[in-house]
Write a structure and sequence with these properties.
By secondary structure, the chain is mainly alpha-helical. Helices cover 74% and strands 5% of the residues. It holds the Pfam family DUF2231.
């Protein structure tokens, strides 16, 4: 395994971690469960760390794909630029989650306030990581981009598709 593989694997963690953490934190607020809120903060912290790892391995992934035919530099740059902003939101979420862990553990009077702040941060971070993931997917997944490769002419003949070779 190399850094490109790590990048591709870990990029899903911030997306799913933030939305699942958000749902668990909402449930923890609703039930008032100390342990549920702590689990949510821990998951959100892991998601934020995953985002930092994804960003840190992005340059290696870029070097792997930048010379592959059909991959445009502009698509990579768009993903990279948005990833920088997403990283800032993930760091804010990680700091908020740490504060949530500490304040909840201390049974602080700010426990409810920090949970609202972390909910907002996790919603923002979920949106940011999802869009960054979409932009990253456009680099290599031609089915979601406008850079699909042209193989040849396709004609429908009965129930079969026939391909004309170039």
């Amino acid at each position: 395994m190399n850094l490109t593989h790590l990048h591709l694997m870990v990029t899903h963690l911030p997306i799913f971690g933030t939305v699942i953490g958000l749902i668990i934190l909402l449930y923890g607020r609703y039930t008032g469960s100390y342990h549920t809120k702590m689990a949510a903060y821990a998951l959100l912290l892991v998601a934020a760390i995953g985002c930092i790892i994804a960003f840190s391995t992005g340059e290696a992934a870029e070097e792997t794909v930048e010379n592959i035919q059909g991959i445009t530099k502009s698509t990579i740059e768009e993903h990279e630029e948005f990833a920088k902003i997403t990283l800032a939101s993930a760091i804010a979420l990680g700091v908020g989650a740490l504060a949530g862990i500490y304040l909840t553990w201390q049974k602080s009077k700010f426990t409810k306030a920090i949970s609202v702040i972390v909910l907002i941060l996790s919603l923002i971070c979920f949106g940011m990581t999802s869009w960054t993931g979409y932009l990253g997917g456009r680099i290599r997944h031609t089915e979601i981009s406008n850079t699909a490769f042209h193989i040849g002419n396709v004609q429908r003949t009965g129930q079969l598709l026939e391909f004309e070779r170039l």
